[in-house]
């Protein structure tokens, strides 16, 4: 009996070691050891035992969400830190990972305020804490900055391939975080595009990429354009339009049509109408329309989008600063 237990433990250890090697653990460990302490603090290789304990044996009650790229579990580390653990077929490093299991486990920081999609489209959440125009503008600016970095500032450009409001998380201060790099693609510095199997979400998918299978940085720009329109209108990327005979309508096509007919203000979300400045709304909408151009070459880059959004947001901050100065002088 004792020998059987010892033999089983040895077999388990060998199996874990095999998965660790198979999943590239030795290479990752070598890379981590070559970096300084600050990098090692940010990235950790977890054991399967640690994550099993943190998630209460991957209990179904700990499931935060499920999708095409895997199941996400809520976990708690021994120091009390809340984490999100993702069982994924693509070992993408965030806080860390475990490579001792057949399917690699990814460890993410836990983002407490859910997704942008929930805040825009969940009626109860929208009523309890509606996103103001200023918050929407800030979220758009933060996401654009993150994508601009991935496209141009990172050592190897990365195309996300699945930008959508469910992949934009909001932390405790409602700061935006881009999530789920399960379908992302590393691009060589000298490449302008890559031919791939089509990946993405209906309603956000770049029509040009869908037709040609050629992924470019402008594919992310198109998807981000749809998110901008969601922020403006509060409508889902595919929605039912009550005044048409069609069951489902593409938000991107509906928005572009409304812009060309000068009917933007007929489709804006109530929060945007109440609190948004007309010049800011128009600049935001014009930028979204350019992102949704069917010709990818005519779309702006994410760096240009980021700069424009910062400019729109900056004009609002300058006005608030001037107003506060006037109030101080009068008081």
Automatic annotation (TrEMBL):
Q: Which PROSITE patterns match?
A: PROTEIN_KINASE_DOM (PS50011), PROTEIN_KINASE_ST (PS00108)
Q: Which Pfam families match?
A: PK_Tyr_Ser-Thr
| Keywords tagged on the record | ATP-binding, Nucleotide-binding
Record carries keyword ATP-binding: yes
Q: Where are the transmembrane segments?
A: none
Q: What is this protein called?
A: Protein kinase domain-containing protein
Reaction it catalyzes: L-threonyl-[protein] + ATP = O-phospho-L-threonyl-[protein] + ADP + H(+); L-seryl-[protein] + ATP = O-phospho-L-seryl-[protein] + ADP + H(+)
Task: List the InterPro entries hit by this protein, alphabetically.
Answer: Kinase-like_dom_sf (IPR011009), Prot_kinase_dom (IPR000719), Ser-Thr/Tyr_kinase_cat_dom (IPR001245), Ser/Thr_kinase_AS (IPR008271), WAK-like (IPR045274)
Where's the Protein kinase domain? Answer: 58-323
> GO CC terms for this protein?
plasma membrane
Q: What is the lineage of its organism?
A: Eukaryota, Viridiplantae, Streptophyta, Embryophyta, Tracheophyta
* GO MF annotation terms: ATP binding; protein kinase activity
GO terms classed as biological process:
cell surface receptor signaling pathway
- The record lists the organism as Citrus sinensis
